[in-house]
TrEMBL record:
Keywords: Activator. Pfam families: Ada_Zn_binding. This is Metal binding domain of Ada-domain-containing protein. Gene3D superfamilies: DNA Methylphosphotriester Repair Domain. Signal peptide: none annotated. Residues 4-68 form the Ada DNA repair metal-binding domain. GO terms for biological process: DNA repair; regulation of DNA-templated transcription. GO terms for molecular function: DNA binding; methyltransferase activity; zinc ion binding. The keyword Heme does not apply.
C-alpha cells in the first residue's frame, strides 16, 4: 500500500488526490499527493488516510497545495 502511495506522490498522480495525504516528518507538514513542492526524502514521509488524521498526529497543512 505504501509503495503505491509513494509512486502516486512521485508521479503527482491526480487520481489519488483526496485518497490520502502524505506527511513530511522533517517539516511537520502534510500535503496532497499532487503537491508541486519539492519532493521529500522517502525516509521522512508518513502516509495518513485523512487530513484530520495528519493534524491529530501533529502535522500542519501545506500552504502551497492546501490539503485541509
Amino acid at each position: 500500500m505504501d509503495t503505491e502511495r509513494w509512486a502516486a506522490v512521485v508521479g503527482r498522480d491526480k487520481t489519488f488526490d483526496g485518497a490520502f495525504v502524505y506527511c513530511v516528518k522533517s517539516t511537520n507538514i502534510y500535503c496532497r499527493p499532487t503537491c508541486a513542492a519539492r519532493l521529500a526524502r522517502r525516509a521522512n514521509v508518513h502516509f495518513c488516510d485523512t487530513a484530520q488524521e495528519a493534524e491529530v498526529a501533529g502535522f500542519r497543512p501545506c500552504k502551497r497545495c492546501k490539503p485541509e
